[in-house]
Amino acid sequence: MKGRLAVLFSVIVCVGLAILANADEKRAIKPEDLVDIRGVSDPQISPDGRRVAFVVTEPADPSKPQQPRDANIWVVPADGSETPRLFAASPKNDSSPRWSPDGRYLAFLSNRGQPIGEEKEAKNQLYLMRTDGGEAEQLTNLKGEVLALKWSSDGKMIAFTVRDPKTDEEQKKQKEGYDEVYVDHDYKYARLWVISVADRKAEQVTKQDLEVSDYAWSPDGSELALRVAATPRNDDIYWHSSLVIVRRLTGEVVRTLAEKPVVAGLGLRWSPDGQTIFFGQYTPNGIATWPALVPSTGGPPRYLLKDYGGTLWRAEWAPDSRSLIGEGVEGTRAKLLNIDSATGVATKLADVAARSESFSVSADGRTVAYLAQPPDSPGDVWVLAVGQTPQRLTNLHPQVGTWRLGAVKEITWKSKKDGLTMYGILVTPPDFRPGQTYATIVEVHGGPQWAWWFGWHGSWHDWAQLLASNGYVVFLPNPRGSTGQGWQFAEANRDDWGGMDFQDIMSGVDYLIEQKIADPARLGVGGWSYGGFMTSWTVTETNRFKAAVVGAAVTNLFSFNGTADIVPSFLRNYFLDIPFNRRAAYDNHSAMTFLKNCKTPSLVLHGQADDRVPIGQGWEFYNGLKMLGVPTEMVTYPREPHGFKERAHQIDLLKRILAWYDRYLKN
Predict the structure, then answer these.
(1) What's the CA gap between 433 and 70, in Å, rounded?
(2) Which listed residue, of 22, 106, 532, 596, carries a Cα 20 to 30 Å from 321's Cα?
(3) Tally of CB atoms within 10 A around 491
């Protein structure tokens, strides 16, 4: 398998070079192009800073439409002296590569093993492989699925989490047809385990009913810091988690360092000197996040970056425990940062053209491996030796050289309501001419805490390059409620969804019209998730848009509150209370309340297995438009959750989006 894939990689590179030699023969991007881009993720630099392991997710097999994409682990020298090579490959998925502290081993997760009992598919287990060659060794063979792994500082142990499996009795009942779901009972927890590398003995650490969503080793290996919740419900995990310390040998909770809510995402890191723990905590409103430090022995947390004008994504300790290396976004620009743990001052190390947190740091803190997505290419592995120029280590997407790409630039404009400066991205067609107006599509991002970035914009849910390559100007605004402009800005749409954030977007549209870029007679709007919400809201507030794509949209806040997998805290924090106590506020920010105002032809797209934004939200909007006689179509996708997985569905979705805009904006 390794040999075949290595040859395939070489062939791809050679073909890519030949393609680039004929770069003048470029064509418009097709939906299949974006769906078949290789995924690159999880760059992990070795402790000595000489190699980087990372995961490559290959395009899906068209002949097996419901089969997950194959993922393999690759390794590349950090000095760029050699091309990447396969490290671990299997017909299934290998992921989460983690170097041992001495660099001699890579531990990773894989479902390459044999199914246990009557299971149809094997679940992820923990594997170990020497970095100088050899075969992968399966370390665990547990009924539950292994979710994550972390080495102890001395390399003698690996901590990992395991999801509780179904009991034998539950499996027996299910086989007999008794597969009812007893809601909010019979929880399956993620529990902490530790395995000794010397004798391969695995032991369960947390036996009490606690959902472990993140953890960090103490430097001496005697304790672990855990982010825990009372249940595995998303509402508890996201908004009601605490930070506790447990003893490794007993699993006993010996200290609580921070009461709920402790945030996922920013990371949980124990300082090398053992004195301090870095974590994230929600602001008092429960919306934005503050990076925080707390003494490992207990005490009040100290918040970092409260006056920072950007958004920190994640951070790692430097070896001296006096600073942290972080990654975040300012406006639309991603950056690597050095953060002084005493003063909270953040200093830029490099611009990185990233879209989300994905980096690692060598043991001496001098070399950082990260993923970058510059405007002309999907993700690749890059490396930064502190004080030097960043270096690109991989070139995994040579086919992009044959596509007609839109030009990407950051733009700013002023809100017409209060003069506040807004940031966003403009993607223009390859043949764009200043002074000529174009059909323009506004794509609103999800979240609402998220942001468009200066970089690559092409995937099943990011349509900018597809649309620009086919002749459209695409406007990607970051209105109030977005990340990238400080925590206060991220909370600025509290109790105001569809208010000032809508005005921010429309001010941007007016700016593009004033600049003679956007044709006011050919405007489209669309988005996914919160972007779908904003689209549904927009077409009930104005008839300026001639076409809309409403993707996985929240259209009725009241019914959403009772059916989504992230309630009640998500909406309660934004709208100050549960809907039964503030019904008018929920209704006044719901598109369904004002649906009779809509005249815009709207394409409604939704996954049938969407728990985040249940499909009823789409049905309400679509059926309402049908009753009102507004041109509308709806397409639902079997098996698809909030984020689509299947190749054929992703292609179909993109084709329909392009055709819908062509139908109403190009005639």
Answers:
(1) 42
(2) 106
(3) 20
Nearest-angstrom CA–CA distance, 412 and 415: 10
Question: What pLDDT does 1 receive?
Answer: 41
Q: Is the dihedral of CA 79, 82, 87, 93 positive or negative?
A: positive
Q: At what angle do helices 500-514 and 530-541 cross, to 10 degrees?
A: 70
Residue ranges for the chain with pLDDT beneath 50: 1-23
- Return the closest-CA partner of residue 445 out of 371, 555, 532, 572: 532
Residue 533, φ and ψ in degrees, nearest 5? -55, -50
Q: Checking phi first, is residue 187 left (phi over 0); if not, alpha (psi -120 to 50) or beta?
A: beta
Q: Which two tokens stand for residue 40?
A: 């690159």
- Please give the pLDDT value at position 308: 96
Nearest to 354 by CA among 324, 329, 389: 329
* Token output for 508: 């941007």
Please, are residues 430 and 405 in contact by the beta-carbon 8 Å criterion?
A: yes
Q: How far apart are CA 9 and CA 26, in angstroms?
A: 23
For residues 210 and 246, give the distance between their C-alpha atoms in angstroms, rounded to a whole number: 12
pLDDT score at 24: 59
H or E element in which residue 55 lies: strand 51-57
Structure-token pair, residue 524: 């489209």
Distance separating alpha carbons of residues 557 and 536, to the nearest angstrom: 12
H or E segment to which residue 327 belongs = strand 323-330
Buried b (16+ CB within 10 A) or exposed e, 79-100: eeeeebebbbbbebbbbbbbbb
Give the Cα separation of 547 and 527 in Å (integer). Answer: 12
In one letter, which amino acid is 194?
V
**Residues facing residue 474 across a β-bridge:** 427, 441
Beta bridge partners of 57: 39, 71
The domains located in the chain, with CATH, are: 404-665 (3.40.50.1820)
Q: Is the distance from CB of 486 to CB of 282 less than 8 angstroms?
A: no
pTM: 0.94
Distance CA 234, CA 608 (A): 20
Reduce the DSSP state of residue 148 to 3 states and report it.
Answer: strand
Q: Considering Cα of 84, then 379, then 111, then 142, what sign does the dihedral take? A: positive
CA 75 to chain centre: 23
- Alpha-helix residue ranges (DSSP H) falling in 365-499: 464-469, 487-490
Tokens 């190749």, located at residue: 647
Residue 61: both structure tokens together: 């097999």
In one-letter notation, the amino acid at residue 444 is V
Sign of the dihedral through C-alpha 425, 281, 151, 228: negative
Asked whether the beta carbons of 310 and 485 are under 8 A apart, the reply is: yes
**Whole-angstrom Cα distance, residue 365 to residue 383?**
13
pLDDT of residue 67: 85
User: How far is the C-alpha of 115 from the C-alpha of 435, rounded, in Å?
Assistant: 62
Contacts of 99 (CB under 8 A, 6+ apart): 44, 45, 46, 47, 53, 105, 106, 131, 151
Q: How far apart are CA 121 and CA 113, in angstroms?
A: 9
